[in-house]
Every structure is written in C-alpha cells, then in structure tokens.
Write a structure and sequence with these properties.
Blueprint (H helix, E strand, L loop, with lengths): L1 H14 L2 E10 L3 H4 L4 H10 L4 E8 L2 E6 L5 E4 L5 E4 L4 E5 L4 E8 L2 E7 L7 E9 L2 E8 L6 E6 L17 E6 L3 E11 L14 E2 L1 H22 L11
Parallel strand pairs: 8-14
Antiparallel strand pairs: 1-2, 1-13, 2-3, 3-6, 4-5, 6-7, 7-8, 9-10, 10-11, 11-12, 12-13
Length: 241
C-alpha cells in the first residue's frame, strides 16, 4: 500500500508541473535509406539531409505542444519538379485528459490539419538502455507504420510526452529514431507552476489521421506509376508518415 500511495504522489506531482524541453530533428545520412525511393523524393531528401531543425515541447497538466523554433526557410521541391521556399512550421498538440490530438503537417506544397485520437504505437519495452543528456533512458520499439521505430525514454520524468507525434511510454521520450530521421532531446527545464497551453485549432478544416495515411498512400502509388513507367527497375518502399 505504501508503494501505491508513493507512486500516486509522484505522478500527481509531475502532473501538476510544467516541463519545457528542446529537441533537434535531423535526417539520418544513410544512402541505403534513400536508394529505392522515387526520384522526386530522393532528390528532396538529399537536399534536406544536412538540415538540422530545432523544436520545443511544453507539457503541463496533461497537455503538450510541440512546435518548430528554427527561424529559417527551406527549399522544398514539388512533385512536378518545381522548387519553392517556405518554413517548416508544423506543430503537434495533445490533450491527454480528453484523449485528443491536433496537428499541422506539410503535404505536397500545402498544409493539412489532422484531428483525431492519439496514435496507438503499441510500444515494446526492451532491456537496453542509453544515457542521453546525462539521463539514463530505457529503449522501446514499435513496428507501427510498416517500419521499425526506436524510442528512448526516462521514468525519472513520468509524463506521457515526446517529440512530434510520439508518446505513449511511461516517461518523457528523449530520443526517437526512424529509418530516415531522428529526434533528440538537448535540454529540459522544470517549472513548479502550471502553464496554460491553448489548443491552436481555430477554423481550420480537419481530416482524420487515417485520411492522411490514405492520401499519403495515394501519392506514393502515383509516384510509383510515374517512376516505373520511365524506369521499370524502380522499387518503392513505404514512406514514414
């Protein structure tokens, strides 16, 4: 009984505090990751491979908000091979008290707004550990999305939060590694007061996460047809969502 009461008090204490975390997001420079992609995507990924972007995460009272803090423009390429310049101002808002998720993400040249329940990653916790930013973290993995994703989290900060759309572990996620990119925590600050985090949703038209996946699959199938018609040896692999 003492253990249960102590655990409850620890979780309650973390729940009533505010955490401010900073992450960097960067591509993984692995030639094998890009070699079988459609030419348009491969060129785009190679252009971005040396870009490192900064993001901030604020968590308070069961709500989190993750946004870009890199004040620079990026050269993007459309799928008709035209270039344009824009900022990567995606964001992710989670209200775990209401089991809700709202985020903004780039799709082709435009942005889409997704409103849904938080993603269920079905993490598998392993026995491996890694020290990140002087903090011992446990390793978890998932095959969500058709590829293996790894995450390192710490139970010393038992909050359900992490970079971008990743959460669902019994502690703050310090690092996420996907086949083509990774997110790493570089700093964290704790405040004893509760910070109000407002939902950024206003009058945007929203779609579900499943609809985003459907649109992404359609785009990849279109690229597959375009590339195989010009090069029958091209192989398409499933892209990260």
């Amino acid at each position: 009984m003492k253990y249960i009461i102590t655990l409850f008090m620890i979780n309650l204490s973390c729940f009533s505090q505010t955490y401010l975390a900073n992450y960097i997001e960067k591509p993984i420079n692995n030639e094998n990751t890009f070699k079988d992609l459609p030419l348009e995507i491969k060129i785009h990924q190679e252009e971005l491979r040396n870009k490192i972007h900064s993001y901030s995460l604020v968590y308070s009272n069961g709500i989190s908000f993750y946004e870009n803090t890199t004040d620079e423009t990026i050269n993007f390429r459309t799928f008709d091979n035209k270039k344009y310049t824009s900022t990567d101002d995606k964001y992710f808002y989670f209200n775990f008290n209401k089991n809700s998720m709202f985020f903004k993400t780039r799709f082709k040249k435009d942005y889409l707004y997704i409103e849904d329940k938080p993603i269920e990653f079905n993490w598998e916790i392993t026995s491996d550990t890694l020290t990140i930013n002087n903090t011992l973290c446990k390793k978890a993995k998932t095959n969500w999305g058709g590829f293996t994703t790894y995450a390192w989290y710490t139970e010393s900060i038992p909050i359900n939060a992490g970079p971008e759309k990743f959460n669902g572990l019994p502690g703050l996620i310090f690092k996420v590694q996907l086949p083509a990119r990774e997110f790493t925590l570089i700093g964290i600050e704790k405040k004893e007061n509760i910070t109000e985090i407002n939902n950024p949703k206003s009058n945007q038209n929203t779609i579900s996460f499943d609809e985003l996946v459907r649109l992404s699959d359609e785009l990849i199938n279109t690229l597959k047809k375009q590339n195989t018609s010009s090069n029958p040896n091209v192989i398409i692999i499933k892209k990260e969502q």
